[in-house]
Amino acid sequence: MIRSMTGFGRAEHTEGGIMISAEVHSVNSRFLDIKLKLPNMLLEFEHDIRKLIQAATSRGRLTLVVHLDEPSARANSLRVNFDIADRYLAIARELNERFGLADGLDTRGVMSLPDVLSYTENTSAVERIWGLSRNVIREALTAHTAMREREGAAMGADVTGRLKTIRGHLKSVEERAPQAVEANTARLREKIEKLIDTEKIDENRITFEVSLYADRVDITEECVRYKSHCNAFEHELENRKVSGKKLSFLLQEMNREANTIASKSNDASISQLVVLIKEEQEKIREQVENME
User: Fold this and answer.
1) CATH number at residue 66
2) What does residue 23 show for φ and ψ, rounded to 5 degrees?
3) CB 208: neighbour CB atoms within 10 A?
């Protein structure tokens, strides 16, 4: 199944005063590049989140943003360190008495002093929030994958149609090839005859050289290889998990054969057909670059 590397997915869930939302979006990249934007409470689960993403996709620059709102179910509880607060106040009184200062501390001032307030983590609440968040992230990834598969289906249909067009052009090349070889060898024989005395021509030698030249300009082998690459390309498109990297490699090989066909044939009609083939190859390449 073809999947695009470009996609978006979103999911959210509210339960027991906790609201969690997750958004996933991705663009093209040669490798899997994951960027996470997580609330502090989920930072310790970053490794687990990356594993969820890696199970869902293998290529692309992917960003996951998770929002958490839990005002009525705080995972951390606030505590007052009275010993430290008492010590701060005792020092303040000593300073006031010694230097004749007015008492400037109030409740807000004491609370802002270092280590007076602390948070005690509620482990069970954190695990509960992680469990809810994990499900929301999975739902967002599922929506993201569904969108990529829809786009991939459209890409596959487009590529298949262009491969059909290429096959048509290649068939025309094969039909023209014998005439091109005949025309090229005729031109070679004519040039040879003009350069030497026709009365002293060794016909067997000329025939031998012309046949060698005919072999060099024959493009049958290149056409066969090109069709083989097309078959391999179509076979890869039918795989359960299509590899964009493999398709890119096959396109390179197809382009190589097309260039060789044009240069060896030395025929204007075939060169024009190769131009049309390469135009379709380029459009396929643009699609393949966005395949996972």
Assistant:
1) 3.30.230
2) -125, 135
3) 11
**Has residue 24 been placed in a domain?**
yes
Q: Please give the residue range of the domain that contains residue 170.
A: 151-288
Cα separation, 150 vs 280, in Å, equals 23
**Residue 194 and residue 170: Cα distance in Å, rounded?**
35
Indicate the number of domains in the chain. 3
- Could you please report the per-residue DSSP string of 214-259? HHHH--HHHHHHHHHHHHHHHHHHTSSS--HHHHHHHHHHHHHHHH
Answer yes or no: do 173 and 256 share one domain.
yes
**For residue 169, what pLDDT is reported?**
96
Cβ atoms of 254 and 281 within 8 Å: the answer is yes
How distant, in Å, are the alpha carbons of 26, 130, 154, 281 from that of 158?
A: 22, 42, 6, 12
Phi/psi for 165 (5° steps) reads -65, -40
Show the tokens assigned to 93.
């009184």
Gap between the Cα atoms of 153 and 234, Å rounded: 14
The pLDDT assigned to 75 comes to 45
CB contact at 8 A, 144 and 56: yes
pLDDT at 240: 82
For residue 23, the SS3 value is strand
Q: State how far the Cα of 263 lies from the Cα of 98, in Å rounded to an integer.
A: 99
Listing DSSP states for 179-196 in one string gives HHHHHHHHHHHHHHHHHS
Q: What is the pLDDT at residue 122?
A: 65
Those residues of the chain that have pLDDT short of 50 are 73, 75
Question: Is there a single domain that holds both residue 220 and residue 281?
Answer: yes
> What does the pLDDT read at residue 156?
93
Same domain (yes/no): 168, 48: no
DSSP 8-state assignment for residue 264: H
Three-class DSSP category at 75: coil
